[in-house]
Amino acid sequence: MAELQHLTYADYIKAHIRTVSDWPQPGVQFRDITPLLQDPKTFRVLVDIFVHRYMDQRVDMVAGLDARGFILGSVVAYELNVGFVPIRKKGKLPFTTIAEQYELEYGSATVEVHADACTPGQRFVVIDDLIATGGTMTAGVKLLRRLGADIVEAGAIVDLPELGGSQVIRDAGIPLFTVCDFAGH
C-alpha cells in the first residue's frame, strides 16, 4: 500500500477512475469505473472501504442499482455475509415486481424490485457506482421502503455534486456516503 502513504483513500480511488469526454453525448464528462475494477489492488481497497463502513451496522441486505451497482453491491454483500437484492430497469426481473418511476434530465425511467425482496424491518444498504441527479438512488430507496425496509445508508463510489443528486438524496432523508467526488471537474 505504498501508493496510499501519500494519498487519502478517496484520492487513491479517484485516481483510478477514467474520465471520458463527450460520452454518451457532447458536453458530458463520463466517469468510468472500469479501470478501478480491473486493478485487483484498487478494487480490493474500494470493497474494503464499504465493508469496513458497514460491518458493525447490523446490515441484513445490500441492494445494488442496475447495472454498475450490481458489481460493487454483490461483492460487499458477500463480504458482509448478507444477501443481495438487484434493483433493475423496468422489464428485466422475471417474478412479481413493484415499480418506481423517476425523472431524468430528459424524460423519465422506471426501476423495479421483486415484491418479495425483503421483509419489513430488514436493514439495507443501497449501492450504486455514482450519484448524478439522484433519481435512480431515490427511486430504489422508495421501492425498498414500500416493502418495509429500513435504509441504513445509500452508498456510491462517486458523487457529482454539481448535478445536485447528493443534495436531493439527503433532502429526501436518506443518509448518503460517497468515496470521492468530482466537484468542479
Commentary on this structure:
This protein is α/β, with parallel strands linked by helices. It has one domain (2-181): Rossmann fold. It is built from 6 helices and 9 strands. It has helices at residues 9-14, 34-38, 40-54, 68-80, 135-146, 165-171; strands spanning 18-21, 29-32, 61-65, 83-89, 97-104, 107-114, 123-131, 150-159, 176-181. The chain has a 7-stranded mixed β-sheet, sandwiched between helices. Strand 7 (123-131), helix 5 (135-146) and strand 8 form a beta-alpha-beta unit. Helix 3 (40-54) crosses helix 4. The two termini are 27 Å apart. The model has no long low-confidence stretch (mean pLDDT 95).
Number of domains: 1
Strand content: 25-35%
CATH architecture: 3-Layer(aba) Sandwich
Mean pLDDT: 95
Question: Would you identify the regions where 5 or more consecutive residues have pLDDT less than 50?
Answer: none
CATH topology: Rossmann fold
Estimated helix fraction:
25-40%
> What's the CATH C level?
Alpha Beta
Number of helices: 6
Q: Shape, please?
A: globular
EC number: 2.4.2.7
Family: Belongs to the purine/pyrimidine phosphoribosyltransferase family.
Main location: cytoplasm
Domain Phosphoribosyltransferase: 46-161
